[in-house]
Amino acid sequence: MTQNRLPRRALPGLLAALAAPLLPPARAPRAQPAETAAFPDRPLRLIVPVAPGGSQDLVARLLARGMGEALGRAVQVENLPGAGSNIGYEAAARAKPDGYTLLAGSDSLSINAALFPRLGYDPLRAFEPILPGVAVPQILVVRAEAPQRDRPDSPRRRAAAPWRWARRAMAASPTSSAS
Questions:
Q1: Radius of gyration from C-alpha coordinates of the chain
Q2: What does DSSP assign to residue 19?
Q3: Which of 88, 85, 68 has the alpha carbon at shortest distance from 76?
């Protein structure tokens, strides 16, 4: 019988996430030099490299609202979806490096370098992380009535009916035209 256990390596991260709300707030920032004291003096632009309506867009809009309230300036959300988020990433990489254009990136920022042979930006050099966003665990689930119950069962089922798995994988691929 398989027992659902949390991997030992996940424990420190889980404890940190649970303890974070209990920690005292960070110290107040120091006084800014005169040339940056007026920042921002115009609205900020937050590029979201996905279509409106998804979870990444929602998180970006919540972030924009909070930033706008904290800074006393509007933060305009601009959705630039397409090409696996590369259109938005490239727009952010080509923006003037004045701090007024921000990017709500995701894991595709690092993954796309392996998927696309020519990017219009260098993901390691074009961006500097300033705020960790959200950590979203991704899991594979089945219906409660399904016969497979653990990961070792899936390879056996694939071997018994490989055409079903191949067709499903092709249909789920963003570059596939199979249905």
A1: 22
A2: H
A3: 68
In terms of pTM, does the model score above 0.70? no
What is the C-alpha to C-alpha distance for residues 124 and 26, in angstroms, rounded to an integer?
28
Burial 148-166 (b: 16+ CB within 10 A, else e): eeeeeeeeeeeeeeeeeee
Polymer length in residues for the chain = 179
56/146 Cα distance (integer angstroms): 30
pLDDT tens readout for residues 2-33: 555 555 555 455 444 444 454 445 454 555 55
107: which 2 tokens? 């894991």
81 Cβ contact list (under 8 Å, min separation 6)? 49, 50, 51, 87, 88
Euclidean distance between CA atoms 36 and 175, whole angstroms: 45
